[in-house]
Amino acid sequence: MEQLKDTGLQQKQAIEGDDHWTEIIKPKSNLLDLRLAEVWRYRDLVMMFVKRDIVANYKQTILGPIWIFLQPIMTSLMYVIVFGKIAAISTNGVPMMVFYLAGVMLWSYFSECFNKTATVFKDNASIFGKVYFPRLVMPLALVVSNLVKLLIQFVLFLIVWGYFVYKGQVQPNAYLLLFPFLIVLLAGISLGIGMIISALTTKYRDLIFLLTFGIQLFMYATPVIYPLSVVTAKYPKMAGVLKANPLTHIMEAFRKGFLGSGEFSWGWMGYTTAFTAILLAAGTVIFNRVEKNFMDTV
Q: pTM higher than 0.70 for the full model?
């Protein structure tokens, strides 16, 4: 009799949900179910992939992590020579080195997050085919690992920026407090677009070949090597097109806060925020939709 009671109690506990299962087989979920709670359960896996990416990027290199500093410095110096000296593009009185370093730092974060997220299915097909975990973990790990690199480069930027602040050649203001929010927007846009492209590349491989070329062209449609005010003054119609690019307002807001030179509007910042939220939600839905069957096409 006691055994029957114990068995009945165990069955009752199982029905009431006292047993915690690691995986539940259930019918197809709602299209708008982003499954973020499941991703949160795998947060330790995100950090493991972050460590893997950081180590893999600089393993078996002579200079190692020093490349994190050398890349933006060398690129900024090249921009100073080509766009600042030869092309004579105005920086609105801001010292060229710190102007280009700001653009290079932000653009590098966006482009690397976008490029790696856009090929996440192709690059990790061998892992996805062997073990289950929420596929959204992988692009999130890429964004976080590149964030570590960005923060290191931001320290370099602060050193150069601090020198010019001391010399009185740049005038920072309270808008620099928006920096963390700007990085969230930058990460959200790169993640959203990257997930949409990664979903498309499972069927249309041609998009992979267009990524590198396309991201280079997109840089010139974003005020990375020139201030928006220069385009507004010379080509007012083109300025309207640039303002439709949400990255434009992130770049300009950063320069407005740290360099005291840039166009900032709360209205355009609201537009960028809304665009990022919609893009990120759409990208997550499409990514989750494709991940269920992508192994059949990759």
A: yes
- And the tokens for 79? 């921009």
What average pLDDT does the segment 96-121 reach?
90
When computed from its CA atoms, the radius of gyration of the chain, rounded to whole angstroms, is: 23
Indicate whether 9 pLDDT > 60.
no
Q: How far apart are CA 4 and CA 16, in angstroms?
A: 18
What residue type is 22 in one-letter code?
A: T
Cβ count within 10 A of residue 42: 16
Tokens of 121: 């299915």
pLDDT at residue 170 is higher than 80: yes
Which of these, 115, 68, 81, lies nearest to 225 by C-alpha position? 81
- Identify the sign of the CA torsion 210, 212, 217, 223: positive
Q: Which residues contact 104 (CB under 8 A, 6 or more apart)?
A: 72, 75, 76, 79, 224
Token code pair at residue 44: 């330790």
Distance from C-alpha of 18 to C-alpha of 12, rounded to nearest angstrom: 9
- Give 215's DSSP letter: H
Domain ranges of the chain: 35-296
Other C-beta atoms closer than 10 Å to the C-beta of 188 total 22
Question: Tokens for 126?
Answer: 């061998």
State the Cα–Cα distance between residues 281 and 191, nearest whole angstrom. Answer: 10
Per-residue confidence (pLDDT) for residue 290, from 0 to 100: 73
Quick: pLDDT tens for 210-224.
Answer: 777 888 888 988 999
Q: What is the Cα–Cα distance from 104 to 73, expressed in whole angstroms?
A: 9
pLDDT at 63: 57
